[in-house]
Amino acid sequence: MRPYFTPSGAVVLIPIRLPVVNVGQDLFSIVARGLRERKLKVERGDILAVASKVVSLSEGQVVALDTVRASKSAQKLAKKMNMNIQLAALVTREADRVFGGVNGFLLTLKNNILTANAGVDLKNSPPGTATLWPEKPDRSAYVLRKELERRYRIKIGVMIVDSRVTPLRLGTTGLAVGLSGFYPIADDRGKPDLYGRRIRVTQLNIADDLAAAAHTLMGEAHEKVGAVIIKNAPVKMGESTNSGPVKLAFTRCLVTRGLCMDK
Q1: CATH number of 36's domain
Q2: CA 100 → CA 80, 249, 250, distances in Å?
Q3: Which of these three, 132, 164, 189, is where a domain ends?
Q4: Contact of 234 with 179, CB cutoff 8 Å
Q5: SS (H, E, C) 12-65
Q6: What percent of the chain stands above pLDDT 90?
Q7: 47 lies in the same domain as 84
Q8: Can you tell me the distance from the alpha carbon of 4 to that of 7, in angstroms, rounded to the nearest whole number?
Q9: Angle subtended at Cα 57 by Cα 15 and Cα 180, rounded to the nearest 5 degrees
Q10: Rounded to an integer, what distance in angstroms lies between the CA atom of residue 78 and that of residue 262?
């Protein structure tokens, strides 16, 4: 059954400013400090959205660029796309597949997500380094959720948020690269539309909708909003949940299959 809004009908997002995160810092301690210093608390049914870079830094997913050795193919790709050579080498190493790109960026497949540069980012990474995506985002969300639930004796959801681009749209929006504690999809199949016709295929990706809302507050520059509390989200909570249900096989995706179909 698809969940309903709370009686108030309002989904509320509360930004949590965090200090600059050092490599290897404990993630729960970082979040707990942010909550404590701003006199905020997570409550039963809340979703805590955490920026992927905060998670990556805490997990040590940071690479010193001067340690990266670039192959000849990576050097050639970097020249073609006008990219930093070490960055291009890291992207090709991290990507499950590289499709091409534009000036400064490669279009890649990573963890069955179509994304720029396989999640490798120089922005807001310590000087001379690049930050990677968390190695296992769903696991990261699960571990943080269980610690928060243990400490605060509540049931909540957690998701790891990064930015993404949308085909033929300018600018970035939010993406849930990992999650735990709530069902990410609301299924409308079989329900009637306004005119009584049965809906055949529509499913709502609530996780990415919420990630986009949280990303609006997180920003991409020096805002330091490393986490966002989402209250009254229209989700169903669940213990054994992750980001798997939102992912499509390459051959089932409208964009990828449509672009690759025989002419």
Answers
A1: 3.30.1330.100
A2: 10, 19, 16
A3: 132
A4: no
A5: EEEEEECCCCCCCCCHHHHHHHHHHHCCCCCCCCCEEEEEHHHHHHHCCCEEEH
A6: 84
A7: no
A8: 9
A9: 60
A10: 30
